[in-house]
Amino acid sequence: MTIEWVNETLVREFVFLGFSSLAGLQRLLYIVFLLIYLFTLGTNAIIISTIVLDRPLHTPMYFFLAVLFCFETCYTFILVPKMLVDLLTQKKIISFLGCSIQMFSFLLLGCSHSFLLAVMGYDRYVAICNPLRYTVLMGYGVCVGLVAAACACGFTVSLVTTSLVFHLPFHSSNQLHHFFCDIYPVLKLASHHSRFIQLVIFMLGVFALIIPLLLILVSYIRIISAILKISSSVGRYKAFSTCASHLIVVTVHYGCASFIYLRPKSNYSSSQDTLISVSYTILTPLFNLMVYSLRNKEFKSAVQRTMAQTSYPVN
């Protein structure tokens, strides 16, 4: 691949170098990533369709779950097809405008995903700590409002962050050591940027990651307190099992995202970030759907009912 330098003029496109060190494995990676992506996409479609079609699943928990899988489907659609095309092409480029749109879209969905996990934690808190008032406190209008609030927070963070990054001057290298337009790989290419901008972007990351995580922790402190008051071991196990999948997904999501966006920039490593981002983009959605579907007997029964009704519709 020829190295392109843009001197004294504005950068009009970026060249991805995320997989340049794996040139001999790119076709194999293409096949593996394509199969995982198609399987994840198909399974997400089955999960969302089942939740929509099966009336017993028309509850707040499954409503939020459907929205979660919609977010994951959309942000993988933003990143993975472009990555797959680049694995087969010699010159892996994206326009300046395309890069900004990709960053905005990914941050919008990723941050909304983060706030949605906090909403799902609150839903579990209400279900376990206020079961008699659950249907009142978590009505359809409340659920839609909470999702809208999560999206509004995600939109605000993504708009401000993308605007700050792409209003910087880009006059030097256009070699992006990543496979998509993430914040810090792009920020490294800016000709100059102030500590203030870095601080604002970092604080936005704290807002999008730490605040939802703290809300989740508060919800689970109250949930654990309520579960410990349940006298029967069977009741305690049943109550905790409804939260286990959410806890696993929260751990993976905030673990990966915090490693990328909240660690000191002096420890920044493009190869480490690329590896974690591949896991976050390709493997985490696959992991999440397996956690929520394979561990959930109620959902597996719903899939069977939906397939039976689709195959043998009742007149």
TrEMBL record:
It comes from the Eukaryota. The chain crosses the membrane at residues 28-53, 60-81, 93-122, 134-160, 196-218, 239-262, 274-294. It is a multi-pass membrane protein. Residues 43-292 form the G-protein coupled receptors family 1 profile domain. The keyword ATP-binding does not apply. Signal peptide: none annotated. Putative odorant or sperm cell receptor. Odorant receptor. This is Olfactory receptor 10K1-like. It comes from Lipotes vexillifer (Yangtze river dolphin). The lineage of its organism: Eukaryota, Metazoa, Chordata, Craniata, Vertebrata. The gene is LOC103089876.
